[in-house]
Write a structure and sequence with these properties.
single chain, 227 residues, alpha+beta, Rieske Iron-sulfur Protein, 4-stranded antiparallel beta sheet, 3-stranded antiparallel beta sheet
Length: 227
């Protein structure tokens, strides 16, 4: 080690002294060690970045491709709501079922609510609990015999048809059946316009019977013929 008191001329002389310079063999021996360390650190960094990316990518991929891996049978499952004795004639009851398209992490959210109306011994209506306006859960009030939405004041008659408020249509209904003494619904998808779980299809606006102008014109023509 050189003395701190050396002048810059002495330091320069030491740097050019052959005794202070590495031989080509020493340089060649040191190069692989330095390259190996750099390569190891580079690979380590790449591996850590890949691991972090995989941790974030797995849930995203599961969300994107999960629906495609679900069995079609799950979306077309008949689910039991209860025995017929649980739904008295002339009453509307709250019921729950477990979504057949479920994962272990869903917990209590796998339970889906609905309203069951028994019209007579053999006739039922099963309504989705969601308001047809923005999806808030509706409640049934026996005294007024109305379904009421607490969010925006939507109201529905006991048959699910619209009574008043913002909704433009009635409550959505599940397809249902009576099987082995129990009431079952076609579950897996909530009843909406976009799937076949809705019993009452949206009216076709171009159909003659749904076009008020066409109906008025037909009535006018019929009146002229009668005259």
């Amino acid at each position: 080690m050189s003395d701190p008191k050396h002048t810059h001329h002495e330091i320069a002389a030491e740097a050019t002294d052959p005794r202070w310079q590495a031989t080509p063999a020493e340089v060649a021996a040191a190069a692989p060690a330095a390259t190996s360390r750099r390569s190891f650190l580079f690979k380590l960094a790449v591996g850590l970045n890949g691991l972090v990316g995989a941790v974030f990518a797995v849930p995203i991929l599961g969300y994107l491709i999960g629906p495609a891996t679900k069995k079609d049978a799950d979306f077309n499952s008949w689910v039991k709501l209860g025995s017929l004795d649980e739904f008295p004639v002339g009453k509307t009851h709250f019921a729950e079922y477990v979504n057949p398209v479920v994962s272990p992490s869903d917990g209590e959210t796998a339970k889906i609510a609905c309203w069951v109306r028994r019209i007579d011994a053999n006739s039922f209506q099963v309504f989705a609990v969601n308001c047809a306006h923005l999806g808030c859960p509706v409640r049934w009030f026996e005294q007024s015999r109305l379904f009421l939405c607490p969010c925006h004041g939507g109201a529905y008659y006991e048959d699910g048809s619209r009574a008043s408020g913002p909704p433009m249509r009635g409550l959505f209904e599940y397809q249902h059946r009576v099987h082995n003494g129990a009431l079952e619904i076609l579950a897996g998808q909530l009843p909406t316009f976009s799937n076949e779980a809705c019993n009452r299809k949206p009216q076709k606006p171009n159909a003659p019977e749904n076009n008020p102008l066409r109906v008025l014109a037909d009535d006018d023509a019929a009146g002229r013929r009668d005259a």
